[in-house]
Amino acid sequence: MRIAISSNKPDLEARVGSRLGTSKYLMIIDLRTMAVEAVPYPGGSGQGGGGIQAVVLAISKKVDTVLTGYCSPTAEKYLSANGIEILTGVSGTVAEVVQQYKTGDLQRRMGVVRKSESGGAKIDRRTLFLALKNSSNQFINLLPILVGVVLLIGLFNAFASKELLSYLFTGNRALDTLWGACFGSIFTGNPINSYIIGGGLLEYGVGLCAVTALIIAWVTVGLAQLPAEISALGSKFALIRNGISFALSIAIAFATVGILNFITG
Amino acid sequence: MISLNKDRYLTKIWKKRAVHLLIFPASVLFIYGILFIIMPGKALIALRSSGKVFANIIMPLCLVFILMLVLNLFLKPAYITKFLGKEAGIKGIILSAAAGIISAGPIYAWYPMLKALREKGADSSFIAIFLGNRAVKPFLLPIMISYFGWIYVLILTVFTIFGSLLAGYCIGILVKENRS
Fold first, then answer.
1. H/E run at residue A32
2. Is residue B79 domain-shared with residue B133, that is, in the same domain?
């Protein structure tokens, strides 16, 4: 059982950091051996991003519980998603908190039921509740846009004519596939929407190649997310990856439809 | 005091997210509202057509939720990302591809993890393979099959996985790491 406590000094007598994102150290304590490790994190300088760096650190150090004064909802979400318990509103010195945690006083005071250490991969109520909560959140997040897309398809079916679509998708397989890849690169969001849009386009006689390119580029190429990808992984990587993915979406579309036609005759 | 601030902060974030998520469907509903006033006949046709699309996806959507729950129960992002970059060669490639396939959620949520991994020395090609395989969504397969049939989905999935490996290989060559 390993716990991490945020602190501003690499010292057991230092006070617990008031915010996970701005603290300078994570004091990692193994409760069995009582080995202490003070790990600094660069994001803890208060210039932003410290919370996420602390999360990455807690995950890589295989911590079970994080104790701090305050933790941002985003960092809390990442910690919970990785099965790490988070206790906020903690104060006192690091040594005091470790003692209170070991005796269970801290958990009792905060109304937390101690996790079974022998639990391992066992699915307890808390894990099931967390998984249900995460799944419901993911589902609720995808529903509004999905409802909007379906309603838009209804409008499209009522108003758009084949002539309007054939203005864009001329029936030229190569050109239509290129258009499909372009649309997929511009639009973003849950891939479920690309399937529904693709299905609608097929009903209007748009070729399967174009629809396939749209579906692949929808996920693998992201013009809208490009700035975020550049800042995270570098401009060279992001531009080359998106460029290759765009070309591949067209190649895969042709290969998939070619093989499908061959199999189904 | 802290919990009060936290509650306020959470409410603010939820409001912002809800507004962001609801803008698009609300705009479409607004168009429907105007249509019902000026062209009620056409608006009804559009609504019926949307109803048919909903009827087609409702069962696959239930399956999607169950698959999401199963994935959330047994897979944690930390377990997924720890596979990336640790192993070299074929094993690393397979693990990166598998991690991409089972990863869920919007891509921007993964950028901080990928950035940290890359800084720790994970190879560019593994990150590219991971991102390419995100196109394969196991929990969305019911919807995809209901639209395009399982043979198409199978072929597309195989090609997507091979395509991502090819992309990873090319990126590995083109993006030379500066590890000095």
1. none
2. yes
Does residue B79 sit within a domain? yes
Asked: is A2-122 a CATH 3.30.420.130 domain? The reply is yes
Identify the domain containing residue B45 by its residue range: 2-57
Q: Are B97 and B129 within one domain?
A: yes
Does B49 contact chain A (CB < 8 Å)? yes
Give the closest-approach CA distance of A33 to chain B in angstroms: 24
**Three-state DSSP string of chain B:** CHHHHHHHHHHHHHHHHHHHHHHHHHHHHHHHHHHHHHCHHHHHHHHHHHHHHHHHHHHHHHHHHHHHHHHHHHCCHHHHHCCCCCCCHHHHHHHHHHHHHHCCCCHHHCHHHHHHHHHCCCCHHHHHHHHHHCCCCHHHHHHHHHHHCHHHHHHHHHHHHHHHHHHHHHHHHHCCCCCC
pLDDT in tens, A15-63: 888 888 788 888 888 887 888 888 887 655 555 567 777 888 887 787 8
Whether B180 maps to a domain, the answer reads no
Looking at the structure of chain B, the number of domains it has is 2
Q: Same domain, yes or no, for B79 and B48?
A: no
Closest CA to B129 of A176, A245, A3, A91: A245
Highest mean pLDDT among A100-104, B48-52, B107-111, B119-123: B48-52
Provide, as residue numbers in chain A, all residues whose Cβ is less than 8 Å from the Cβ of B13. 73
Residue A56 sits at the chain B interface (C-beta within 8 Å): yes
Are A248 and B43 in contact (CB < 8 Å)? no
Tell whether B20 and B81 lie within a shared domain.
Answer: no
Contacts of B103 in chain A (CB under 8 A): none
| Contacts with B21 from chain A: Cβ below 8 Å | 141, 144-145
- Nearest CB partner across the interface for A199, out of B134, B135, B147: B147
CATH 3.30.420.130 residue ranges of chain A are: 2-122
pTM: 0.62
Kindly provide the ipTM of the predicted complex, given to two decimals: 0.73
Whether residue B165 sits in one domain with residue B82: yes
Q: Is the pLDDT of residue A140 over 50?
A: yes
